[in-house]
Structure formats: C-alpha cells, structure tokens
Write a structure and sequence with these properties.
This protein has 14 helices and 18 strands. With about 575 residues, the protein is α+β, with helices and mostly antiparallel strands. Among the domains are: about 90-210, 2-Layer Sandwich (Beta-Lactamase), CATH 3.30.450; about 425-570, Reverse transcriptase/Diguanylate cyclase domain (Alpha-Beta Plaits, 2-Layer Sandwich). Helix 14 (about 545-560) links the parallel strand 17 and strand 18 (about 570). Helix 2 packs antiparallel against helix 8. The longest helix is centred in the N-terminal third of the chain and has 67 residues, at about 25-90. The protein is flat, with a radius of gyration of 50 Å.
Length: about 575
Amino acid sequence: MASGKSDLSHRLRRLLRLPRLSFRIHLTLWFALLACAILAGAGMYLGSRLTHDLAASRGETLYASARFTSDLLSTRINERVIEISLIADSSLLTEGDLSRPQVRRAFERRKVAHEEYAWIGVADVDGTVLQSADGLLIGAKVAERPWFVGAKRGFYIGDVHEAVLLAKLLPQKNKNEPLRFIDIAAPLFDHDGRLRGVLGSHVHWQWVTDTVEKLVRSHGVRGGMEVLIADRKGNILYPFDLIGRTRLPEMPDASARFATVAWEHGREYLTSVVGVEVGRDNALGWRIALRQPVELAFEPVTRLRDHLIGMGVLAALLCAVLVYRFAVRLSRPLEDLAEAVREVEAYGSTARYPTDSRIPEIRKLSKAVRSMTDSLLANERSLAVLNSSLEGQVAQRTAELTAANAELERLATRDSLTGLLNRRRFDEALREQFRLYRRNRAGFALAFVDVDHFKHVNDRFGHLAGDAVLRQLSGILGACTRETDLVGRYGGEEFVILLPGVEDAAAMQRIGEKIRAVVESTPFPEVGQLTISVGMSRAQFGDTEAQQIVARADRALYRAKGEGRNRVIID
C-alpha cells in the first residue's frame, strides 16, 4: 500500500507540476535569473564590442610607437652607415700612409662628435691595425675578426656581439651587462681600385638601447608596455634580462599590424612587430616589438564588466523583491493544494482541498484534483489485489526459467554419459588458455588418455559395461587432478586433460604416471583390470594456435599405443 501511495503522489505532483521549492520562490528565482540573463547578455555584447574597439585602439597605439621607434632607429644607424661610407671614400684614406697622425686625429674628432663610437680605426690588408682613435689596438691583429673578413668583400654591418679585444680597454658603464657593439666596416681602395685596407668601427650597443628608451619615454609608452629588439631569428637582443629567457613569437598574420599572441610561460600580450631597415639590403633583419599584457590592455573593459555585474546583482535583487510580493498572492492557494496532495500521499485517503481561492482557475483545479484522487484511490486498491497475484506468478515462472536455463547450459557443455566437459566446451577452454599463454606466457600442458583395448570390452561385456567403465574412469581422472585442471571427454574412450601451470617435462611425467598407475590398480566391476595409454604435450614458444599442442599430444598418444600401451609418452 505504501508503494501505491508513492505512485499516486508522484502522478499528482506531475499533474500539478509542483516543484520541490514553493511556487513563490520559483517565480522569484525565474524573474531574478531573467534580469541577470538580460544584463549578462547586454554586458557580454558591450564587453565584446568594447574589447574589439579597445584592442584596435591599443593595437594601433602599439603599432604607431613601434613604427616610430623603428624608423628613428633605422635613421640613426643608417646615418652611421653613410658616415663610414663617406669616410672610406675620403682622400684621407684612399691616398697616403694610413698610419700617419692626421688619420688618427680625424678618427678622434669623429669619435668626439659622435659618442656612439666605441672604436674607429683602420687596418691594412693583412689585418694589422695601423691607426685608430686614442691609439687603441694599434698593432693588433684583426685578420680573423668578422668585420675585417666581411669588409674585405664589401661593405659590412655586423649584428650585436660582446667586446673581445676592447673588453679590458674601455670603461663599462653598466656593470650588470657586458660591453656589446655593432660593427660597421668598409673596404678602402686606391685610385686604381686595389684594396689597401679596411676601415672599421664599433658602435656602442648601449647607444642603440638608450635611443630606444628615450624614444619610448618621450612617446608615452606606459601601462605595462614593453619595447623589445629581436634579430631575424627571433632571439631577443634587448632588454638584457630577457635574453635567453624568451623569444619573439610568430605573429598569426604577418601582414597584421598587431595581434594577441602568447609569449613566455603562455602569458598573452597585445603585440606589434615592425622591422628595422638597417644597412644595405637590411643586413641585420632586426625587429622592434612592443607588447602589453592583455589584462592591462583590456583593464577598462574589465572595470566596466565589474560595474555591469554589480548593476545586474542589484537589479536582480530588486526584481526578486517585487516578484516575491506578487508571487505570495498567487502561490498561497497552490501551496494549500500541494498540502492536500501530501496528505493523500501520507494517509492514502482524500483530504480537504481549498475551495475559497479568488482565482477561478485554481478552484477548478482543486475540484478536478479531488475527483481524480477518488478515482485513483479506487483503482489503486484494485491494482494492489491484481499485483499480489501477478507477483506470485512471476516468481514461479522466474524460478522455472532459471532451472531450465541451468539445464540447457549443462546439456550444452557437459558430456551426457560421464558429466565431464564435452569436446566443444573443452576446445573453448583450451583456446582461452592458449590466448592467456600468448599474452603473459602462463604455461600449461595437455594430456590425452585412451583406454587400452576398449573395443574388446564392448565386444565381450557389452556396451552397458563399457559405459560403466567410462563413467568410473571419468571419476578416477577427476580425483587424480587438481581443482584448476579441466577434464573432458574428447570422444569414445578418449579423454583429455588441461593442466594450467604445468610447464616442465618432469611434472608432466609425474602427473601422467600417477593417473596411469591409479587406473591400472583399480578394479572395474564385470570387467576387471584395465590399463590406459597417455600422450602429453605442453605449450611452446613458437606455437601460433592451440591445435598445434593438440596435435603433439595426439602424436604422443599414438606412440604410447605403438610402443605397447599402458605407458606415458611426452612429445
């Protein structure tokens, strides 16, 4: 009866659509969620639009700053390139002795006028420095230096490198960074076009970085923005603390002015990358990159989103209060109706339904529910009687079906005469054991047992006596094997035994001899003493199917027969 009451209550609840929470709470929550959804949708739309517009604005700012920095840096370095070219073409270096004092004074005036030069000098065709500003490195051999080798073939501009020969001769302004230079060099030719030497200069890398830093400060780069210089391979050249820690990432679209890309540790930055046209044929391939963390670039949108969330919460609360006051007037009659349904669930009888509601639809619903309850209770009592009868019939049929299935299983897998596994079921077990062997090398053995001169037993004592012998022999085989072993009748007077875990020949011999000896010493009623022949084999590494083991055991059995019977042969 309790089950019937629960079903009745469930049907009434489903009819009324009564939730676990009260109607007034549901109505309040729905309107509050609706207000939140509207504001959330508006906020997401505005946020998306603002994020797009702000990204475009910030991206264009980054691009303008990167472009301005690139252009100015290109101009500054190219001025030095042009200057070295003009000096190399001057008569001071194309004529006369390259080691004369006038050359040194000209270099020193140039170095005073342009502090970016760390060293400027001239070397002969053999790579010996003949003259230089301040007399640095005069007499030094520079024939192996890249700037000298490159300038002998044509105008040369080299990438950033640390000081080698000048490291101990020049003061180090920043103790946290090594001295680094870029090399600008040009070949010197006489009026006949013969190479007479190489003009070389080392430009302070700090001059390049100071130029970038001053430009960035004057151009208003702020808000977490960073400026970086990278070579053509993406290796960072500036700032120094990022060298070796990060690389310039590939831009999703090479033609885009800016994009949001992931840098070191997967952090996303709004990034703009602009190439620096330095030297002839853009020999260096430098790139200026300006980046700003996405969370800082979109901070105004984040603040606006937070404001919208706060407004949404306040609006939802206000809406919830108003809707709750309205829902109270609507929900009270429905709550009374729900209470009546709960009484029906608890006591299984009709209850008092509300009839004084001001809402006509609820009065009609109350009347319909009462009528339905009376009808359902009557049907419930009839169903209870019918269910009791059906449950007994189902239990009886289930027990009969279970017994029939068990008998079918026995008939399908057991030999009807001996009760042992039949050949089909034994073959399945053998294949399962072979798959296990192939998977984890769990060795096993197989034995064929055949009654010697069994045809003579049937001819002399009759088939009933032969059947009795087979039944008694099956019992002996079961008693002589382990619980984990499987014994089956393979056909006629031939039996087969599966021996899991038996791998060596000595163990196989002991098992076979035990069975043979027990059979030989056991009297069989009406027949007397009998003997058996046993052929055995085991799983081997090269076996590809279970039938190979069967074939070897069968071959061993025929050998036992041929060698005089009443013996155990292992293939």
